[in-house]
Automatic annotation (TrEMBL):
PROSITE patterns: ABC_TRANSPORTER_1, ABC_TRANSPORTER_2. The keyword Nucleotide-binding applies. This is ABC transporter domain-containing protein. It holds the Pfam family ABC_tran. Residues 550-575 are annotated as: Disordered. Residues 577-611 form a coiled coil. It comes from Prevotella histicola F0411.
Length: 653
């Protein structure tokens, strides 16, 4: 679908890429990986045509469509959510408007016998057939399914987009791109603004509906669940691994070990050759051999070894006071925001009747859809907003709070290094450069002033600063949004070894796995407590139905995730659910068979679309009849799919 040949990109003395070649095929699910600054986002921009390479070619067939979601984009603010999303079907809506206009004209006119009226009827008929071929009657349902999958409620559809945060507006842009059904999807950090349920919906969509995907993401679970191929940008070239990310890590380690052995052998060969040249350089009897060795040395192509920092960066929190046994106790907690429309209206209840106790040393996760009250609860703890009920902060509790707005409190006139140097104490003062490197501020970057940093860079710096402060209660609101996978591991290990208490608001399953022992689920105005880790909650609360009796949870989680949740069910529990699981599997098969039939019908529909658009086939009644019958069959099968899906949903309750 896309062919890249001899690609070279030069920004400075050293090329970013040199002579890179690869092909993106249909059904490829590619993870584009590499250290920060390797050129992943640049590669996506080149693939979609927004940036030109220094040399080389990017070949895309004329009939191949490409959809691109950047990390940051200009967002529209002048429409409602549904109106903005409907722009994905601009061609369809133009025809729809034209049909309505012609319908009105036919209703108003009375010259039924005139030639112009006959022409109007013929134009209407032609346009209506074209409208039906484009799936005109189904696009509204598609819009609603996609917006719902990405976390919007029906009440949100009519709200102006300007009422939503940047993260929610990015979801609208993602919905528009997905609805256009491009042949190749290019996604740069698509999960940054999604909650766990929306991420899982996107995983299923990409697995079932997308033709080809190239994505950049630091969400390890998402990458493993979606991709089947890994392209690594390293040392200015691309290494192609036709495996998932976890398998790539194993192969990459083996490859680097081979590189090191080859590098060491080459260095020994170079050293031996140089020693021979130096030893016999001035002996006339060895002149021929010396010249041969010099030429041999000149022909050696140096072996490059991937730059990988294998040194473990251990971050230890500074000593702090011991807090009371119960840092947080909430009783009948309630938060209501005033009505936006009427000052004396009932307002919006975010949550109510919340009773929870967090013990000293516990690491807990706050999860749930965006807008359900996770950050609001944190603000109540911090005393930033009023609330009803009781919220007790324990004795000697020293809170370290990280949220995205913390980045705005940094001193803009300090450098990165100075910012951390002012809070580092003890042995960490000797490891500031190592610490900055672990969070992607290594080398000359550490001398940059805070005022020139991007929002993401400021967030990372605010995170490092927090980790060096003597606190005994951490509250981290989406701490991993701007971190790469190695940086996440440093942060995760630091929190695991932290003696104090921690609340982590996050949608990153891999980060939370093995870190938290309790999950608080926010939703529907309630806060529910779940004992166990993140995958226990995913299994028990989200009711991920097993495909077989070993409790494999299918395409929603990776093979690594399956290992985490495939604990053997207790005997009584298993016996109780066995019959139900059999019904679920039968319903699941019905849904899958229906989806396969729909896919087959849609494929033929696309073929007929292409045929009927050719002038020579415009009057082929055989094709028109087949198209009409196929559309009817497709509508019936879509209805069947809805019935089967509702049956499956009922069984899962």
């Amino acid at each position: 679908m896309i062919s890249i040949d001899g690609l070279t990109v030069e920004f400075g003395v050293k090329p970013l890429f040199k002579d890179v070649s690869f092909v993106v095929n249909e059904r490829d699910r590619i993870a584009l990986v590499g250290k920060n600054g390797a050129g992943k986002s640049t590669m996506l921009k080149i693939l979609c045509g927004l940036q030109k390479p220094t040399s080389g070619t990017v070949s895309i067939p004329n009939d191949t469509t490409v959809g691109y979601l950047p990390q940051v984009m200009k967002l529209s603010d002048d429409t409602t959510v549904k109106e903005e999303t409907r722009k994905a079907f601009s061609d369809t809506t133009k025809i729809e408007a034209s049909l309505k206009q012609m319908e009105q004209e036919m209703a108003e006119r009375t010259d039924y016998e005139s030639e112009s009226y006959a022409d109007l009827v013929e134009r209407f008929t032609t346009e209506h057939e074209r409208y039906m071929m484009m799936g005109g009657e189904n696009y509204e349902a598609e819009i609603e399914r996609t917006l719902t999958g990405l976390g919007f409620t029906r009440e949100d559809f009519g709200r102006p987009t300007r009422e939503f945060s940047g993260g929610w507006r990015m979801r609208i842009e993602l919905a528009k791109i997905l609805l256009r059904r491009p042949d190749v999807l290019l996604l740069d950090e698509p999960t940054n603004h999604l909650d766990i349920e929306s991420i899982q919906w996107l995983e299923q969509f990409l697995a079932q509906s997308a033709k080809a995907v190239v994505l950049v993401s630091h969400d390890r679970a998402f990458v493993n669940n979606v991709t089947n191929r890994t392209l690594e940008i390293t040392c200015g070239h691309v290494e192609d691994y036709r495996v998932k990310y976890d398998e790539y890590l194993v192969l990459r380690k083996e490859r680097r070990e081979q590189q090191l052995r080859a590098y060491e052998n080459q260095q020994k060969e170079i050293a031996d050759t140089k020693a021979f040249i130096e030893r016999f350089r001035y002996q006339a009897t060895k002149a021929v051999q010396v010249q041969q060795r010099i030429r041999q040395l000149e022909k050696i192509v140096p072996i490059e070894v991937d730059e990988v920092d294998n040194s473990a960066m251990h971050l230890k929190f500074p000593p702090c006071l011991r807090s009371g046994d119960y840092p947080i106790i909430a009783e009948s907690l309630k938060k209501v925001y005033p009505s936006r429309l009427h000052s004396d209206g009932p307002g919006q209840t975010v949550f109510e009747g919340v009773d929870l106790t967090i013990k000293r040393g516990e690491k807990v996760a706050f999860v749930g859809k965006n807008g359900e009250g996770k950050s609001t609860f944190v603000k109540c703890i911090m005393g930033e907003i009023p609330y009803e009920g009781t919220l007790k902060i324990g004795h000697n509790v020293q809170i370290g709070y990280f949220a995205q707005n913390q980045a705005q409190l940094l001193d803009e006139n300090l450098t990165i290094y100075e910012t951390i140097d002012r809070v580092a104490t003890g042995e960490m003062r000797l490891k500031i450069n190592d610490l900055l490197g672990a969070f992607m501020f290594g080398g000359e970057t550490s001398e940059k002033y805070v005022k020139v940093l991007s929002g993401g860079e400021r967030s990372r710096l605010a995170m490092i600063k927090l980790l060096l402060e003597p606190v005994n209660f951490l509250i981290l609101d989406e701490p991993t949004n701007h971190l790469d996978i190695p940086s996440k591991e440093v942060l995760k290990e630091a929190i695991k070894s932290f003696d104090g208490t921690a609340i982590i608001v996050s949608h990153d399953r891999e980060f939370l796995d093995g870190l938290v022992s309790k999950v608080y689920e926010f939703g529907g105005g309630k806060v529910r407590e779940h004992l166990g880790g993140i995958y226990d909650w995913l299994r028990n609360s989200l009711q991920l139905s097993p495909k077989d009796e070993s409790t494999e949870i299918g395409s929603l989680v990776s093979s690594n995730d399956k290992k985490n949740v495939s604990e053997e069910l207790g005997e009584n529990s298993y016996a109780e659910h066995k019959a139900q699981q059999k019904k679920i599997r039968k319903a699941q098969r019905a849904v899958e068979e229906s989806e396969a039939k729909i896919a087959k019908l849609e494929a033929r529909k696309s073929e007929l679309d292409a045929l009927l658009l050719k002038p020579e086939n415009a009057s082929d009644m055989g094709l028109v009849t087949e198209y009409t019958n196929l559309q009817r069959e497709l509508d019936e099968e879509n209805d069947n799919w809805m019935i089967f899906s509702e049956q499956l949903e009922q069984l899962n309750k």
